[in-house]
Design brief:
Layout lengths: L22 H12 L2 E2 L11 H12 L13 H15 L9 E4 L1 H13 L5 E6 L3 H9 L3 E6 L1 E3 L2 E3 L2 H7 L4 E7 L11 H14 L2 E5 L25 E6 H5 L7 E4 L2 H11 L8 H10 L4 H25 L2 E3 L6 E5 L8 H12 L1 E2 L1 E2 L7 H4 L2 E5 L4 H15 L2
Parallel strand pairs: 1-13, 3-4, 3-7, 7-8, 8-9
Antiparallel strand pairs: 2-10, 5-6, 9-10, 11-12, 12-15, 14-15
Helix pairs in contact: 1-12, 2-10, 3-10, 4-5, 4-9, 11-14
Length: about 400
C-alpha cells in the first residue's frame, strides 16, 4: 500500500530545496547523448601510475582492507599523510590523533562543516565555489556569505577589503580553496598572510581545501594556510588522492589538523560513510611515497595540456584566463557575442561537439558568473587537440 504524503509539505528538506541534479550530471548526460568530447567534469581519461594500481590489487589479494578499516583510516595511510605534510611543508602532525582519512575531499568538507557549524553561523566562502560547498553549508544549517573573486590582469583576484567586510560577529568559519576551482587562481603569500591575520584577529576557524596542491604552474607556489602564524591550531586542511594520482573513483581524501579539531570532524564523519575505500587506502599510502620526479612529471604534463587547450580556446575567440593551478581553464564567452553561459553550454555539443560547464552554477550572484565557462584539460593530448580543433571550426572567423 502506497503511503500518502501531505501536499502541503515538499518531500525534500527545505535546506536542500535549491539544489537539484548537479550540472555535472546534466552535462555528462548531454555528452553521452550527443557523442561530444566531455571537457566538463574534472576527471582524467587515463589511470594514474601503474605501480599504485598494482598496490591496490596487492592489497585486495592480501586481504588488506576488504573488511572495515579503522575509523580514522589505516595506519599506513595516516603515517604517509603525516610524512607528506612534513616533507613538503614542514607541518608536523601526529598520525594517530591529527590525521583522518575520508571518502574523498567531498566527505571531508561535509564532515568538517557538519561538525563545526551551528544553525545560524555564517560561513565565508570565495565565489565561484565548488558546488558541494553550498550544499554542505546548507545541511549544517549555516548561512553562506560569498566573497567574489573578480577578473583583473588575466586572473581572478581576491579583494581583501571585501573579505574583511564580509566577516561579522556571526561568522564562524572561513572556507578557503587554493589552488582554486574553477578559476585556477592560486592565492599568494600576501593574500594568505592577510587571511591568516584576519582569522586570528576575529578568532575564526578555517577549512582549507587543498586538493590541487600538486597542480601549480609557472611561478605559482602552493602555501598551506596552516603554515602561517597562528593558523595550525585553527585550520582544518583537506587533501585528496584523486586529483594528484588520477584515481578519482577511489575516493580517498584526508583531513589534518589539531587533535581537538580532528576529533570533532571524525564525530560527524563516522555517521556519514563510517569508513570507505579500504584496499585503496593502502595503495594511496604507497603513492604518497613516490619520488619527487613523479610529481614534477605530472605537473609538467598538465602544464603542456593547459597550454594546448588555452591556446586553442584563444584561437577560437574566447577570452582565456590561464590558470596558475588546478586542471581547469575559465573563459569569457562575450568576445564570441555570447553572454549566457548556461545557454552557451547547452548548445555547445550541437554547435561544436564539446561539453563545458557554465561557471554561473558556482555563484550565488548568478549574473556575475553568467559570461564565464569552464573547460577541463585533464584529458589525453589527442582528445584536447580534437576538442580545440572542433571549437576553432565552430567559432573562429
Amino acid at each position: 500500500m502506497t503511503r500518502m504524503t501531505s501536499s502541503a509539505r515538499p518531500l525534500l528538506n527545505r535546506r536542500l530545496a535549491e539544489f537539484g541534479t548537479t550540472i555535472f550530471a546534466e552535462m555528462s548526460a548531454l555528452a553521452l547523448r550527443t557523442g561530444s568530447i566531455n571537457l566538463g567534469q574534472g576527471f582524467p581519461d587515463t589511470d594514474g601510475p601503474e605501480e599504485v594500481r598494482e598496490a591496490a590489487v596487492r592489497a585486495l589479494r592480501d586481504g588488506r582492507g576488504n573488511q572495515y578499516p579503522p575509523g580514522p583510516g589505516v595506519p599506513e595511510l595516516r603515517t604517509a599523510v603525516a610524512a607528506h605534510q612534513e616533507r613538503r611543508y614542514g607541518l608536523a602532525y601526529d598520525p594517530d590523533t591529527e590525521v583522518l582519512v575520508t571518502a574523498g575531499a567531498t566527505e571531508a568538507i561535509a564532515a568538517a562543516l557538519l561538525a563545526l557549524v551551528e544553525p545560524g553561523d555564517e560561513v565565508v566562502a570565495f565565489e565561484p565555489y565548488y558546488d558541494s560547498y553550498a550544499a554542505c553549508i546548507a545541511m549544517a544549517g549555516g548561512t553562506r556569505v560569498p566573497v567574489t573573486l573578480r577578473p583583473h590582469d588575466g586572473r581572478f583576484r581576491l579583494d581583501l577589503d571585501e573579505l574583511r567586510a564580509a566577516v561579522t560577529d556571526r561568522t564562524r568559519l572561513l572556507l578557503i580553496n587554493t589552488p582554486h576551482n574553477p578559476t585556477g587562481t592560486v592565492l599568494t603569500r600576501e593574500e594568505l598572510t592577510a587571511i591568516a591575520e584576519l582569522a586570528v584577529e576575529r578568532d575564526l576557524l578555517v577549512v582549507t581545501d587543498e586538493v590541487y596542491e600538486h597542480l601549480v604552474f609557472d611561478e605559482a607556489e602552493h602555501l598551506p594556510l596552516a603554515t602561517f602564524p597562528g593558523m595550525r591550531e585553527r585550520t582544518v586542511s583537506i587533501g585528496s588522492a584523486g586529483k594528484t594520482f588520477s584515481f578519482t573513483g577511489w575516493k580517498v581524501g584526508w583531513v589534518t589538523s589539531t587533535a581537538e579539531l580532528v576529533t570533532a570532524v571524525r564525530s560527524a564523519k563516522q555517521f556519514l560513510t563510517y569508513v570507505a575505500s579500504g584496499p585503496f587506502q593502502y595503495a594511496v599510502a604507497e603513492a604518497l611515497h613516490l619520488p619527487d620526479s613523479y610529481f614534477e612529471e605530472f605537473r609538467a604534463d598538465m602544464r603542456g595540456k593547459r597550454e594546448l587547450l588555452a591556446d586553442g580556446l584563444e584561437q577560437a575567440g574566447f577570452e582565456v584566463f590561464r590558470p596558475a593551478g588546478t586542471y581547469f581553464v575559465t573563459t569569457d564567452i562575450r568576445p564570441l557575442g555570447e553572454s549566457d553561459g548556461f545557454a552557451f553550454c547547452r548548445s555547445l555539443p550541437e554547435r561544436a561537439g564539446v561539453v563545458a560547464i557554465p561557471n554561473a552554477v558556482f555563484y550565488d550572484h548568478k549574473e556575475t558568473g553568467a559570461p564565464y565557462v569552464r573547460f577541463a584539460f585533464c584529458k589525453r593530448t589527442e582528445v584536447l587537440a580534437d576538442a580545440t580543433e572542433r571549437l576553432r571550426k565552430a567559432f573562429a572567423h
